[in-house]
Amino acid sequence: MPTEESQPEAALTELLRDLLYPSESDEPLESVAYPIALDSPLTPSQLRDLLGIKPDVYVEEIPEAEFWKPVVVDQDWYEDEEKQRTKRFRQVRHLLRKLVKNRQVFRVGETEVDVYLLGRKKDGHWAGLKTRVVET
Questions:
Q1: Is pLDDT above 90 for 67?
Q2: Is the distance from CB of 136 to CB of 113 less than 8 angstroms?
Q3: Looking at the record's lineage, which domain of life comes first (predicted)?
């Protein structure tokens, strides 16, 4: 298994395997990378250009803590499986903090919302995580 020191991107991919982000429809997380060196912070307009999002699609930036809040804290009623999931999310957060700086979270769309947690890698390119949440 790749280690976070020797192969951090591969270690992240391994941590994300079969890990679902909870919402009305639990969805997988995937790592994303964009070989473009835009200055930070990203604006919603730059994100639209980067991802090819149409102007009529709702885009908002939210605090990074809101992304992690539902997945990194154990609840009293959690069984072993949920506690293991929380531990994996904390590992993902830790590794992502090492991999990318100036992190931002964007929500794209309504009801079926694509969520991007993006930051700048050492080479200046943008990378991070993407998932989808369903909110009816």
A1: yes
A2: no
A3: Bacteria
